[in-house]
From TrEMBL:
InterPro entries, per the entry: DUF222, HNH, HNH_nuc
Coiled-coil region list: none
Molecular function, one GO term: zinc ion binding
Record field: compositional bias (Pro residues): 494-505
Ranges where the record places region Disordered: 1-40, 489-513
Origin: domain of life: Bacteria
Record Pfam families: DUF222, HNH
Composition skew (Basic and acidic residues), residue ranges: 14-30
UniProt signal peptide: none
Protein name (record): HNH nuclease domain-containing protein
Length: 513
């Protein structure tokens, strides 16, 4: 198990000796294990306070006639303008403190995780050293430790034991992830994503997978990292993806989880394709509600789903005339039968088995062929068979999700926005368009470029966002397959009861172009 006794020089030397890895497990060497050494607990560095760009009285402009302005804000007196500045400065400082202490708490949680891992190691070491006499075995020693800690913290022994075990497993399987967490590069949400994506990997594969994921974390949120890490993990798997999908689909089920206040979760476990199609149809139906409907969107979705399931009809007829829509991307090599082709995916990142993907391709009303930059993999142009709104299709396919910092809402539910506003001379072309969800689209325009977020589009669709406090964040589009097909409407059941078996029947013969 790798621990903090490893010096940075040792890690650098070890990395320098690694050859470019093959994807096969047989070509991967596990990271070398350190010699027995005393676990070390690092001291977490204090999070740095962001420096707010505070306003001062010098920013107050006397417009005459008793009017004073601060930026875009106008006030009836100098005292009101000064009060606004004081409140703004206080808010900036408080927000700065929130960010700083959020970062500090994350680092302290990482340090606590490392302490728990060290406690597990030392518990095992104590039990080993005592094993020569009439001493307690490891299990008894562990029970003694957890019961002691639990009594002091007033927590259950199961909780304490579980957290210690989880920490030990993280430190053993993903030491570099724990290091990145301790350094403040990632937080607990990223850690969970990495662990979940690597569940099926072997001991030899994990270090390579872990390093690739950490290299691409950047400013991604956990939900954004989940899709990327899942793709990376799939490259390390030896099993046929269709075989994995078949086994997983056999585990579909429905159950209820009781909640407080007489509520419950109705859980439907099914394929990602069907789940996205169902949610997309519910979303379209909920959006068609009348203007005087006071229910919030989550409430509309719930009511619509229950009405459809229980009565076979829909709340206020919202589902009438609405077809299930799902966007599917697939490499051209998959359709043309090239061996080793990548799998098809839905817009939400769910994998689709080959037979189902080919069936969707055969029944698609239109296809969009994308051409990508050979270096970055980002879509740069498209041509369309039976074209409709081809430019929007390109932008949606290129961006995949809302392009605001940290947002992962699917592009098919978003608006296409001009980076430079049309009224300011912005052109309606790919390098001046991006996908924004309605919330962030409104946020961008509500305050204007002087007080709100500013955005500039760089080559290949990269967006450079500048926050109101001057922080700059870059959001890059995710690479896509060299040529993909987008299936936009799926009104029929992909698994009809009397239709072909998606697992056992031969794939459909389909020509790409």
């Amino acid at each position: 198990m790798q621990n903090d006794a490893n010096s940075a020089e040792d890690r650098d030397e070890s990395e320098g000796q690694r050859d470019e890895p093959n994807r096969g497990d047989e070509h991967r060497d596990a990271t070398s294990q350190p010699a027995d050494s005393q676990p070390v607990v690092p001291t977490p560095a204090l999070a740095q306070l962001a420096t707010p760009q505070s306003l001062t009285e010098a920013d107050i402009v006397d417009e005459g006639s008793g009017r004073f302005t601060v930026g875009d804000c106008c006030f009836d007196s100098f005292d009101d303008a000064r009060a606004f500045i004081d409140a703004r400065r206080a808010l900036d400082q408080e927000l700065s403190n929130v960010v700083a202490f959020e970062q500090l708490v994350e680092r302290q949680e990482a340090m606590l995780t490392r302490m728990r891992s060290n406690a597990a190691l030392l518990t095992a070491e104590v039990a080993r050293l005592q094993s020569g006499g009439l001493s307690m075995n490891h299990e008894t020693e562990e029970q003694l430790v957890t019961s002691t800690v639990a009594s002091v913290l007033q927590k259950s022994e199961q909780t304490v034991c579980g957290r210690i075990s989880e920490a030990a497993l993280l430190a053993e399987q993903y030491p570099a992830t724990l290091d990145a967490w301790s350094a403040g590069r990632i937080h607990r949400g990223h850690v969970r994503v990495i662990q979940r994506a690597g569940e099926a990997l072997t001991e030899r594969q994990r270090p390579w997978f872990e390093q690739e994921v950490l290299d691409v974390v950047g400013h991604r949120t956990p939900s954004q990292l989940a899709r990327v890490s899942a793709r990376i993990a799939r490259r390390f798997q030896h099993r046929d993806p269709d075989e994995i999908a078949k086994e997983a689909f056999a585990d579909r089920a429905v159950w209820i989880e009781e909640q407080r206040g007489g509520m419950a979760h109705l859980v439907i476990k099914t394929s990602g394709l069907l789940a996205e199609a169902a949610l997309n149809r519910l979303t379209e139906a909920a959006r068609s509600a009348s203007a005087d409907d006071v229910r919030r969107m989550p409430q509309r979705l719930s009511d619509t789903a229950m009405a459809a399931l229980i009565t076979g009809t829909c709340d206020a007829g919202l589902l009438e005339g609405v077809t299930a829509k799902v966007h599917v991307t697939m490499p051209a090599t998959l359709v043309t039968g090239v061996a080793g082709a990548q799998q098809a995916e839905t817009a939400g990142g769910a994998l689709i088995d080959t037979a189902t993907a080919l069936r969707l391709a055969g029944g698609a009303p239109s296809w969009v062929r994308l051409f990508t930059d050979p270096a970055s993999g980002v879509a740069v142009t498209a041509d369309v068979y039976q074209p409709t709104a081809s430019l929007r299709r390109l932008i949606v396919a290129r961006d995949q999700t809302c392009r605001f910092v940290g947002c992962s809402r699917a592009a098919m539910h978003c608006d296409v926005d001009h980076t430079q506003a049309w009224e300011d001379g912005g052109r309606t072309v790919a390098d001046n368009l991006e996908v924004l969800c309605r919330h962030h689209h409104t946020l961008k325009h509500r305050l204007g470029p002087n007080r709100g977020w500013r955005v500039q589009q760089l080559p290949n669709g990269t967006l450079e966002w500048t926050s109101p406090d001057g922080t700059v964040r870059r959001v890059e589009p995710e690479p896509v397959a060299t040529a993909i097909i987008i299936e936009s409407e799926q009104a029929h059941d992909p698994y009809p009861p009397d239709g072909p078996d998606p697992w056992n029947d031969p794939p459909l013969e389909t020509e790409l172009f």
